[in-house]
Amino acid sequence: MSIAQVLVDSLLRAAELGLVALGLTIVYSLVKFANIAHVEFATVGAFIALVFAGSSTPSIAIAGAASAVIVGLLAIVLHRTFFKRLLRSGSAIPMIGSLALAIVMRALVQLSMGTRPSSFDRPLERAIEIGGAFITPLQLWLIAITLVTIAGFMIVLYRTKLGRTLRAVAANPELAAASGINVNLSIDLAWFFGAGFAALGGVLLALNTQASIQLGSTLLLPVFAVVILGGIGSPVGALLAAILIAFAENMILQVDWGSLVGDSSFYMPLSYDVAIGFVVLILTLLIRPQGLFGTAARDA
Amino acid sequence: MMRHGKRLWLIALVLALALVGAGCAETDEQSENGDETSTEDTGSGDTIKIGAVLPLTGANATIGEDQERGVQLAVDEINANGGVLGKDLEVLVEDSAGTPEGAIAAARKLVQTEDVPVVMGEYSSGNTLPMAQFLQREGIVHLNVGSSSPDLQNVGDYSFGVIGLDDVAGAFTAEKAYELGYRSAAFLAPNNPYGQGLLSETKKSFEELGGTIEESILYTEGKNDYRNEVQRLAAGDPDVLIYTAYGTEAATINRQAFEFGISEQIPFFCVYLTLCAADSEPQTVEEQQGIEVNYIGPGGEDYQQMYEEEFGEDFASTFNSYLYDAVQLSAVAMEEAGSTEPDAIRDALPEVDSDYDAVTGPIEFDEQNQRSEQPYIFVEVANGKVEEVEE
Questions:
Q1: What's the pTM value of the predicted model, to 2 decimals?
Q2: Which residue of B has its CA nearest to A139?
Q3: Which of B 38-97 lie inside 8 A of A, CB atoms?
Q4: Model ipTM?
Q5: N or C: which end of chain B has fewer CB within 10 A?
């Protein structure tokens, strides 16, 4: 396998993980609990888009955007009716509550959409070659959409008044409230963006592959590994970690390790792919629990 | 710092719980989806009930629906001719959702609340095997109608197979691939008893003929992306990729192989081609070759006509006719036994196998209650349809 292919595949994987992980870390930074149900927003988002989408590119794009908005609003409702109450008892209770919510959400998707994976109605296309690596035009679009979305959010977060408000609430909600910031509105916005990004990530993932009820649960480990490696609550850290983990996954699976084990050719069995995120997660917790860009240590 | 570390470990713990939960949630409530082919819901003794557990949802839903068609045709015909033991026959079809847990839950419902003496199904060996073991323990007759793991012959005396197992399929596959001039092969199959069985049988036969299987991958079921698997197999530049994959998984594999030009570079040869093609986009499997169990045997033309009239299309897969035969054979065995007791049916089945003129060709049970002869056919996809290659 060429190194160019490893790089291209890593970029695609980073895009898959990046949006969902960014969403998780945004919610964490304002609401201060790890939402296990977050990855299910991706599943729900993918299926909502699938229901609305036709076969034309604009209709898929509109369905995807609409789905992100719907899921974002749904998350606000969930926060106000469910998580807000649980948050009064600290951060462990809402996390366990979110596990229950994840199971309910998955069951509801299964009930309404069935267990059968389904795909968007999109034309077949051939991969194109870029510097020795193969990638389909759709996948290029997915990377581009992810990059633009993330760049847009970063600009909002670090260059606008709204972003400053969000960061202020994340750093110190009491102080922010005392200086006249509407904390509840900021939290609603965090949920909206966080869940919306997860939904968008789910739509893109389903576009490239297919929508299934396991879409979210297969993301659970890698996405949490990304968020914790990046430093939970740090958007920049999450993005960097997404790239690192994507690269690690592809390197470990695609590179011939023959010379290392003294064999002519040795490839890591592909069924170990899920283990990579898990190993990164454990290593991070053992070696550097605050992550690469850990800010969470301060508020713990 | 300490508290922070603790919180993160708590997250890790809950994550682990969530993964366990993910496994469970997918199997919950599956039997709720079950539907019944019979129109009447009679709890009384007006009908004779037997059961079938089929993948009506999940990756193999297309096959499951076609299996159900075979059930329907058999039930209609039996009841038009006076039923079984003077009563109408009813086949309760339950959904397995394509998972082992779902298959067992469905079988349990059929056995414990519907009290059926016979359960047919499932489709995937990974689901059929645990279900057959469950039925064996319960003392209920099991008819395997679509699975091919050689492990099925060791389940026990209540388990019967009306379809050939992989020892035969693997040998036929190896023979065909060798005949087509392929000498080095890569192999891809699901990581379950079916895939494992098929790999070892195909490899054994292919290597006896003088070919080699350089690289083989048993893939994890239910993933959304099989690009790494296909790319790795293609990297060794084999003469052929021998593969088998379930409905929507095959669709993903074929789509990705098409997108990356791999299927252009290496021919794909599918074991059970109607399965591989069921959900794949026609363009991605055009001209693909493979093997199949035969749809119908000699004398099965009437059945084919009946199917086409009823459903207005050609056979959707090769598996409907095995359900038809299984239902018919159960009915014959119950008539012969004069009873609907599982033990009586079990004892009658080996007696009546040759009396029933099966549409899939002669069914004769060997000493392990398996179909001793299973004809296979060499097929390819032409204009989007799986057709037998005339030789």
A1: 0.82
A2: B259
A3: 57-59, 61, 97
A4: 0.84
A5: C
